[in-house]
Records
---
Amino acid sequence: MAINKEASSQIKGGIFYSVGIGPGDPMLMTLKAVSTIELSDIIAVPKSGADQNIALKIAKDYISSKTIIECDMPMTRDTNLLKCCHDNAVAAISALLEQGKIVSFLTLGDPTVYSTAMYVHKGLTERGYRTEIVSGVPSFCAAAASLNTTLCEGGQPLHIIPASYKDTDSLLDLDGNKVLMKSGKSILDVRDRIKQNNLTGMMVECATMENERVYKSLDEIEAGASYFSVVLLKSNE
Amino acid sequence: MAINKEASSQIKGGIFYSVGIGPGDPMLMTLKAVSTIELSDIIAVPKSGADQNIALKIAKDYISSKTIIECDMPMTRDTNLLKCCHDNAVAAISALLEQGKIVSFLTLGDPTVYSTAMYVHKGLTERGYRTEIVSGVPSFCAAAASLNTTLCEGGQPLHIIPASYKDTDSLLDLDGNKVLMKSGKSILDVRDRIKQNNLTGMMVECATMENERVYKSLDEIEAGASYFSVVLLKSNE
């Protein structure tokens, strides 16, 4: 389904798109991500250090002279501070939507998978604005591709576990394959536990980015890894 | 990273690409899927009934006059028959790679997620041919986008469970959200079990295809659903 700017502009008020721009390689953007960015008046990006520059870098060929707004999204577990930042972003973008603007919020990977964009997305939806998600390739699919292997086959379940989950150990014993997201810093801690579980561990840092690094075995890892790390644990069947 | 046909043709022997073409909407193909298909000499598709036509339909704008080969991939649990079909596909494609051809095997969604393409991919890799995976948007990401909701947030795990898993019930109790893949036929059977677990169930049939249907509640489902169904179960926190 192509997006048509004329059709969009007939709708009262603007539209907010959470746009997944994929894992890093600009060629892994979807045609829809490109066309949505191109029809947008304003490009919003999270400002949280490295993230911001990466999103703009991936999509740079399609942004050209568009207005860019940065939304403070600090990497903190202070829930009050985060809520305040999300509320600020919702307020700023609401004002633009009231003017009928089309706003694309860029997010790495897919917006429905651990994306901060969705807090803003939800806030705008609750205020009654038109919001849409443009899917992207999640980092764990890209990591498996870089490893030239599957995430899951046949009747195998796949368990996706974020680094901030409170009880990762309890899930390592589950039947099926596991993906550990953003566990770069703690990977050395879980490595020994993984070995006890008859699992094969592999890791990709910064999948499909220029500084991608592939570890066919967790034994190759010598120190904590990048925030953008995906660990794949496969059952040895 | 752009793909360059001249560079590719300097490599001895051909290249086999497992190409994810996304969930259904041709606009959800990646730029890399499009360019890989365009540089290919031959397009391979699974022949298993509906699947074949859908893959060719999604990618039709980029295939034009290319040679298309069909690989028998019947929907059966007869492992001997399946192995025979995979071996036949590997043999047929090996012959093309020996001639230096570039072959793209089209697969719905992402090739690393429950794709039959990967049995052929693995067979060709084991025979020493150059094989690569081109990532695509998985159907469960597209389903969440159609529901305008997240798959997982913050510290929540996400459990992906295929319909053919032997003990789905044991996983419904797990902490975190769940995706049930291709469980259209059995959805009425698990619905009551789901209600007992303080979970909210939603479903999307044929996400982003022309005949997409969104169910905001499993109570809306009256009969078995399409093979291309994704059920999302979210914790009521």
Note: The radius of gyration of chain A is 19 Å.
---
Amino acid sequence: MEKTVPVLRAILSSNDRAARQVRQGLRAHGLLSINLMSSPGAGKTSFILACAAGLRPLRTGVIEGDVAGRVDADLIAAHGFPVVQINTGGSCHLEASEVGEALLELPLAELDVLWVENVGNLICPVSYDLGTDLRVVLASVPEGHDKPGKYPAIFGVCDAVVISKIDLADLLEFDRAAFVEGVRVVAPEVPIFEVSSKTGQGLSEWLDWLRTRRGAGATAPGAGE
Amino acid sequence: MEKTVPVLRAILSSNDRAARQVRQGLRAHGLLSINLMSSPGAGKTSFILACAAGLRPLRTGVIEGDVAGRVDADLIAAHGFPVVQINTGGSCHLEASEVGEALLELPLAELDVLWVENVGNLICPVSYDLGTDLRVVLASVPEGHDKPGKYPAIFGVCDAVVISKIDLADLLEFDRAAFVEGVRVVAPEVPIFEVSSKTGQGLSEWLDWLRTRRGAGATAPGAGE
């Protein structure tokens, strides 16, 4: 007696396939990984450094994505953290295959937390899963409170929103309520934090939340694959 | 006797064809047109409003590009300037065909200056000629002085660089020399201005230069076609 065996095959893009590989590799090492996305100049590198210091004794590694240059990677390295620079050479986002290559250069067994600092761009990185546990958007006060309404997709897909440079909120008349309202349109539940990497304001609340995400990767895209 | 007649045909992308049409249309109306590009939140709309006021009696019109929303267009309209909003619906840049459509909604015969406010993005808009006379990059002080090194292409193609929010330079320890040095690597000659749309600082120098560009469109890409 013959039986028809249904064969199901997910049609994955090449980026999604690479992201799945990255995710498996990172999970095998028990790493908490974060794809950090923002506009240019929102303070991603300063934020990563502040988090890396605050998370000790957890050990941090970084993958730096930039169109060109390596100033951020040099800064991270100067602070003693393992770092790999990816230069996209004109491309507007990181792809999972680039992250996968960068992982080969990092001492994964000696790390607990991995940051992937994306290219500064609020639009294109949304479409590329990098295989991390979390996607976090950093939105800086000087950019203004209207950014969620103008760039809704990135706020809709992320696992947390962090408002950076909060020490400038009063000076620049940043309207927190309007910002939060804009986020809530696309992300009714996403946690929103306020931090200043310069003064340390708000970092402990954010890091408390981040610590709870270790081992909680099951909510991430592609979980359980 | 037969002769071989060489047939030369420029291979233009569909965007370049649309840009050529836009350029012809704008020139026919004697407009000075500017494609204004920047990161999200660099202050493009405030800058346009400050310029529009400073350029009177020249008459200003605006095309607003955003992924979503129309807050900037509403603000421009509230100040009495003709404006058309383009929502790219997820796309990371404006294209010339979108500008061409928007032109149909503007009273071109009653305008002297047309601003096209691009989507907030330092990378993707570089590749799309919109048919304007000028391409101007607005780089805000809070983004930091390292942006030219990280996003060199946009600084390399533009006709002028304007540093915005210059009133924050001292507070945020903005390193002007490092910024200018970064620009000079890719654009040895491009004029660099410093302005504050809030205090008015530097606007008159910038507007003096801009006024000299009226009728000087022959240096723009595609000129003479």
Note: The longest helix of chain B spans residues 14-28.
